[in-house]
Amino acid sequence: AFFWLVSLLLASLIWFISVHLSDRDNAKLQYGLLIFGAAVSVLLQEAFRFAYFKLLKKADEGLAMISEDGRSPISLRQMAYVSGLSFGIISGVFSVINILADSIGPGIVGIHGDSPYYFITSAFLTMALVLLHTFWGVIFFDACEKRHYWCLGLVVASHLLTSGLTFLNPWYEASLVPIFIITLCTGLWAFFTAGGSFCNILKCLSCKQEDDSRVMMYSALQVPFED
């Protein structure tokens, strides 16, 4: 989360300097700078994700050296999941803070032509971003470990695409639907990257059904008794 905050700080500084060095009365230029700031923010987030991966690799080597069996107690997949989840949570927190600040006032969303679905759509977008960052973390760490650079490129490209789709708001159908499609596809990709398979899902469901049947049989065989 700290690494994400540092990347956001640097992106904010770049955007702030760009705005003050440009013509503030030019609305088209300012909108272009906003898109530029979002792209820079995405690139910095992925750069700091890579820096965090390198830091965790150094820490993993140190933990392996001091352990009794010569292996780190934390796997790379666990670190990737925790890293992605941390990026997603802090990103979602900042998104929710901005939305709550808008809800304070002045006025109420939907009165002067604004969409009445602003808050519910923003909630779904925030949820999608939290999940996406978690999935991106799993895929990114695995790609760095195996040196699959095309996977890194797809992660950065999907992050840029997701960020760019938010500029279609308040045309929410054009932004929300593609973002959730990206979330679903990325989630499946992260699932298989982490070692998941359809066979494992079937085994998990079959084990759950067997456990439920055993519980039902045990409950049926129990006979109440009195002292």
From TrEMBL:
The keyword Transmembrane applies. Keywords: Membrane, Notch signaling pathway, Signal, Transmembrane, Transmembrane helix. The chain crosses the membrane at residues 31-48, 79-97, 117-141, 148-168, 174-192. InterPro entries: Aph-1. GO terms for biological process: Notch signaling pathway; protein processing. It is a multi-pass membrane protein. GO terms for cellular component: gamma-secretase complex. Its main location: membrane. It is found in: Membrane. Coiled coil: none annotated. Residues 1-19 form the signal peptide. The keyword Oxidoreductase does not apply. Potential subunit of the gamma-secretase complex, an endoprotease complex that catalyzes the intramembrane cleavage of integral proteins such as Notch receptors. Component of the gamma-secretase complex. Belongs to the APH-1 family. This is Gamma-secretase subunit APH-1. It comes from Oceanites oceanicus (Wilson's storm petrel).
